[in-house]
Amino acid sequence: MSGISIIGTGNMARTIGARAIAGGNTVEVMGRDQSKAADLAKALGGGTTTGEWGTAPAGDIVIVALLYDGVVPAVAQYGDALAGKVIVDISNPFNATFDGLAHREETSIAQEAAKVAPADADVVKAFNTVFRHVLETGRPDVFIAGDSAEAKARVETFVESLGLRPLDVGGLKMAHWLEGAGLLTVGLANHGVGNLDFALGITELPA
């Protein structure tokens, strides 16, 4: 399966890490607080290791599981340590009232991360339309966006190892609209659905 490094020690890092281990992947955890990273690695089990913040991740796929305002600075700080890696941004840049995106231009955190990543690294947007507890216990569709077909294929293989269905939405510029879809889930949770126990997905009609 895949070698995964997770930058971050929060709830999404824990949930993705647990599913990754269950899916037969190797997992490394990296956090600014080394003790939190060690605690998460111990909780995940399955041979999960820890890496030092800012050093070259062991995994070929690097999942940046940070709040949106920490993603670009972290990618910039890691710099050449991310050379040749597939960088997966899972963040949602919501504004303070959760009714709009924090950035005003037609961009995305993934696109901004790509600007500071090494030239031979590939950024993919994924997992941002799924609530954490749904990802933990359900089988939601996972939408992905990226400019590299090879990088997306590697992320798709990883998603499939989690028992989930990856769905390619196009190039990295589509990450902006995936962030909008993340915002849509919040609107549905607060209004039309009224709870967090759902995920956006695709239902294919019979021919």
Explain what you see.
The protein has 207 residues and is α/β, with parallel strands linked by helices. It is built from 7 helices and 8 strands. It has helices spanning 11-22, 34-44, 68-78, 109-116, 132-137, 149-161, 175-190, and strands spanning 3-7, 26-30, 49-51, 61-64, 86-89, 122-126, 141-146, 165-170. An 8-stranded mixed beta sheet has the order 3-2-1-4-5-6-7-8, with helices on both faces. Helix 2 (34-44) links the parallel strand 2 (26-30) and strand 3. Helix 3 packs parallel to helix 4. The longest helix has 16 residues, at 175-190. The chain is globular. The model has no long low-confidence stretch (mean pLDDT 97).
Give the mean pLDDT: 97
Question: Counting H and I runs of at least 4 residues, what is the number of helices?
Answer: 7
Q: What is the straight-line distance between the termini?
A: 34 Å
Question: In one word, what is the shape?
Answer: globular
> In sequence order, what are the helices and strands, one letter per element?
EHEHEEHEHEHEHEH
Structural class: alpha/beta
Low-confidence stretches: none
Produce a short descriptive summary:
By secondary structure, this protein is α/β, with parallel strands linked by helices. It is built from 7 helices and 8 strands. Strand 4, helix 3 and strand 5 (86-89) form a beta-alpha-beta unit.
